[in-house]
Design brief:
The structure is a single chain. By secondary structure, this protein is α/β, with parallel strands linked by helices. It has 2 domains: about 100 residues, no CATH class; about 270 residues, Vaccinia Virus protein VP39 (Rossmann fold, 3-Layer(aba) Sandwich), CATH 3.40.50.150. It has 16 helices and 11 strands. The protein has a 7-stranded mixed sheet, with helices on both faces. Helix 8 packs across helix 9 and helix 15 packs across helix 16.
């Protein structure tokens, strides 16, 4: 560990200039478990540590200094000014896991002043962020009010219209970008995604001839699964690339008479009296303040006795909704997460009766591990398709999300609800009718 020199002063009280490694030591609450090297030749942390960080440029130091936390690190890493040592960029999970044990503190005033002098005025000026970064929320007003149709469409475009080919590399043949449900610990990602659709289908008690609306349908995985069972399905997505891919897939499978995917806001669907509605990975995008109208829409579009399956990422508490700076700027602009209690309350306040809920948190950690493995295996092709910076965003985001599910920072809940008749009858079996 590099020794700090912040206490060495002359009679005038001046302090020696600190190296990048010494600055990191000064703000670390504990001994580092990672190796750190920097462009100025300094280093700290165990020389034999399996994982580490290499700060390659002064601009990287500016990113870290002017946006402390995950946003500054993301900027430096995406821009190529920070490298992760000991891991593949497609799956940096082991390094992020180790970094979870690193804690920072505010150094004493004299040390903080020495850090500022060592960095200098130029390094304390925020550099322009990488082009992959979205504007901060307060600057997105040109796109409309948060969760207006126009702004929601732009947010979806930012994340989902990257490249269908890129998603094929990362997601695999199912083209399913939501949590899988693993029937066994050793099941493959594809088996788990197929099982997830089977579970949703069974929970909704769907059968041939029924009508299903799948809102936020992505590339149409649920749409095509249900259509293959003889169900008439309409899917809606705000992503033009998803809708185009899904319609082509429907044609390839000969499902045109049963299935349709529209490039549409779900709020523009006019058909009603659906036997069931599935919402798989949409609720994160609509905004907590819009839950009453969201669940109201669902109730209005279900027939009496119809069922809703709401599948979305949640928080383990119901106290906050923000997603964090990195996720908001690089992954899901305007996304909001809340606890399952808030979702259940909103559904019931809208007049739907919740009959069952379950947490698939560990399943999402396994799903993300599968996606990272795909990204790593197809790294060169992914970089050729979208560029290294965007590929780095995805590796960082998916590995970090996996860590969040592992550590119960985020969860994944499925909530099953029914639209009762005017006498409060549900006409459902007394016990769960599906196989978990």
């Amino acid at each position: 560990m590099t020794m700090l020199r912040t206490n060495r002063t002359d009679d005038r009280g001046s302090t020696d200039k600190l190296t990048m490694a010494e600055i990191l030591d000064a703000v670390s609450a504990d001994a580092l478990n990672l190796r750190f090297t920097a462009f100025d030749g300094s280093s700290t942390g165990p020389a034999d540590a399996p994982y580490g960080l290499d700060l390659k440029t002064p601009r990287g130091a500016s990113y870290l200094a002017t946006a402390p936390g995950d946003l500054g690190m993301a900027r430096a890493y995406v821009a190529g000014d920070l490298d992760l040592m000991g891991v593949h960029p497609g799956d940096p999970y082991p390094l992020l896991d180790a970094m979870g044990e690193v804690h920072f503190r505010m150094p004493p005033a004299r040390t903080a002043a020495a850090i500022a002098r060592s960095l200098g005025v130029e390094l304390l000026k925020p550099p322009p962020p990488p082009p992959q970064e979205a504007l901060p929320r307060w600057r997105r007003v040109a796109e409309g009010l948060r969760h207006s149709k126009t702004r929601d469409a732009e947010a979806i475009h930012h994340h989902y219209d990257v490249s269908n080919t890129f998603y094929e590399y990362v997601l695999g043949p199912s083209m399913t970008y939501t949590c899988a449900c693993y029937p066994t610990d050793g099941a493959t990602l594809e088996e788990a995604q197929e099982n997830k659709y089977r579970l949703v289908f069974d929970k909704l008690r769907l059968k041939a001839g029924d009508r299903l609306l799948d809102i936020g349908c992505g590339w149409g995985g649920m749409v095509r699964y249900a259509a293959r069972q003889g169900v008439h399905v309409i899917g809606a997505t705000l992503s033009a690339e998803q809708a185009s891919w899904a319609q082509e897939a429907i044609k390839r499978e000969g499902l045109q008479d049963l299935a349709e995917v529209r490039h549409s806001d779900y709020r523009d669907i006019r058909e009603t009296d659906f036997d069931a509605i599935s919402s798989i990975g949409l609720t994160e995008h609509i905004g907590v303040r819009n839950y009453p109208s969201y669940f109201g829409f669902i109730k209005d579009h279900l027939r009496t006795g119809g069922l809703l399956l709401n599948h979305c990422i949640t928080r383990p508490d119901n106290k906050r909704t923000s997603t964090g700076a990195f996720i908001d700027r690089y992954v899901f602009p305007d996304g909001e997460l809340t606890g399952s209690g808030t979702i259940i309350a909103a559904a019931q306040d809208a007049g739907l009766e919740v009959r069952h809920e379950e947490n698939l948190r560990e399943h999402y950690a396994k799903t993300l591990a599968g996606w990272c493995a795909n990204l790593e295996a197809n790294w060169d092709a992914c970089v050729a398709e979208v560029g290294e910076a965007t590929a780095r965003v995805w590796g960082l985001y998916m590995a970090g999300s996996r860590l969040g599910f592992d550590r119960n920072i985020v969860q994944l809940h499925q909530v099953l609800a029914v639209k009762l008749d005017e006498r409060g009858k549900a006409d459902l079996p007394l016990r769960p009718w599906w196989t978990a």
